[in-house]
Amino acid sequence: VPMRACIRRGAQQIGGTCVELESRGKRIVLDLGLPLDEEADPCLLPAVSGLVSPDESLLAVFISHAHRDHYGLLACAKARPRVFIGEAAARMLEAASLFWPETAGLGETEPLHDREPIRVGPFTVTPYLVDHSAYDAYALLVEADGERLFYSGDLRAHGRKGKLFEQLLRQGIEDLDVLLLEGTTLGRPGDETYPTETEVEMQMTGLFEDTPGLVLVWASAMNIDRLVTIFRAARRSGRTLILDMYAAVVLRATDNAHLPQAEWPEVRVYLPRSQKRTVVRAEAFELSRSFAARRIYPEQLAGSAAGSVMLFRSGMMRELEDARCLEGAHAVYSLWAGYLGEDRQKPFHEWLRRLSIPVTVCHTSGHASPQDLKRLVEAFRPNAIVPIHSQVPERYLELYENVTLRADGEWWPVGGAS
Fold first, then answer.
1. Ramachandran sector of residue 162 (left: φ over 0; alpha: ψ -120 to 50; beta: rest)
2. How confident is the model at residue 75 (pLDDT cuts 50, 70, 90)?
3. N or C: which terminus of the chain has fewer CB atoms within 10 Å of its end residue's CB?
4. Region class of 122: left (phi > 0), else alpha (psi between -120 and 50), else beta
5. Is residue 235 within 8 Å of residue 266, measured between CB atoms?
6. 38 pLDDT band (50/70/90 cuts)?
7. How far apart are CA 15 and CA 12, in angstroms?
């Protein structure tokens, strides 16, 4: 029986992605994501045999990248099938789990390496390193029974590794039966292009130069591209970057000497109260000691405010106010702007208002623009495009030819998908 596919979750939503593939009675799973705005719960596991109790026909789970909407239900998969994920991504999640327990539960994993095929049963899976807001992210080419399916994972062309996207277009993927294509940005209103990370860097540089006091940047510590952007903008404007210990630990776990590290002269490490409690609770004193030479303490913040950029989270509001280091400060919000309008951000807005701290959004999407997705389709010329990771799968019908809409839970032949 030729290879067949089933989108278990993700045919009509962003996040919670899970795809099951079957060939000759053997199966693999691509991603085991937690739906957005959900807490990890075994009840949310898709109906894939071999996740909860052992089933020898389930050979492996392949995780495209370290975002919870792609790996977040792994911890509920008690049967522990083989799990493949990028090597650095696994290290980062392990390191982050001390400060952010939601990243725990990865367990034993085996590494994905760019363009190195992995053979499991009848399947050959070839990972392709892609540009995304998650570090060490992959698209996956799956081959079995002479058929080929390419799962885009999450990807973009405008980040710091945009050349990976261009390389993918140049080399193409020949004779593709199915392109399982993410379309996160397709339903979004407004401009269809996104600034590059370098443009975000220049915007931040201008802001940093114009701010008399401390710059607070609210960004994800797992978005390594953005940490590089913030570091470069800080250096351009002659400021020191103050990382919280969580971000410093994640950067260290990348094992990449080219990325900003706590040991660099332009970098300091601050331990917020909440992270301090975590260190004490976990008795992770060895870890905090390893940053001792780079630490900056609350009583030093006021004196270095005008020459610093500080990674910030809303949990730090009170202690920064207590440190009296916010005279002339400016807040930079470097996450999806939609979050800023949510009710849970009201205390943050009130805090900014009370202290007369202006806030500016400096961000770009982790996902490819509609134009870049179109370029990918034109380069690959697949027999069929199947939408995934999009709230508007019907938009694909307007944009591309050979689109086949599939429902969650529907099995379909990869070779006859169009």
1. alpha
2. very high
3. N
4. alpha
5. yes
6. confident
7. 10
Secondary structure of residue 269 in the 3-state scheme:
strand
What is the spatial distance between Cα 389 and Cα 179, in angstroms, rounded to a whole number? Answer: 13
State yes or no: pLDDT of 386 exceeds 60. Answer: yes
Distance of alpha carbon 205 from alpha carbon 194, whole angstroms: 18
Averaged confidence pLDDT in the chain: 95
Six-digit token string for 58: 């389930």
Beta bridge partners of 308: 240
Residue 417 pLDDT exceeds 60: no
Whether 139 and 122 have beta carbons less than 8 Å apart is answered as no
CA dihedral sign of residues 30, 34, 40, 41: negative
Between strands 82-86 and 110-112, the pairing is: parallel
Task: Give pLDDT, residue 187.
Answer: 79
Spatial distance between the Cα atoms of 321 and 245, rounded to a whole number of angstroms: 19
Average pLDDT over residues 180-196: 84
The interaxial angle of helices 273-282 and 245-253, nearest 10 deg, is 60
Q: Is 60 exceeded by the pLDDT of residue 33? A: yes
SS (H, E, C) 54-101: CCCCEEEEECCCCCHHHHCCHHHCCCCCEEEEEHHHHHHHHHHCCCCH
CA–CA gap between residue 128 and residue 136 (Å, rounded)? 10
- Collapsing DSSP to helix, strand or coil, 119 comes out as strand
Instruction: In whole angstroms, give the CA distance from residue 335 to residue 363.
Output: 6
Strand order in the sheet with 147-151: 118-120, 123-130, 137-144, 147-151, 178-182, 384-388
Cα separation, 309 vs 334, whole angstroms: 13
CB 262 within 8 A of CB 243: yes
Mutual angle of helices 224-236 and 197-210, in 10-degree steps:
40
Q: Give 43's pLDDT tier (boundaries 50, 70, 90).
A: confident
Looking at the DSSP bridge assignments, the partners of residue 217 are 311, 332
Q: How far apart are the first and last CA of the chain?
A: 18
Distance CA 56, CA 413 (A): 22
17, two tokens: 């992605």
pTM over 0.85: yes
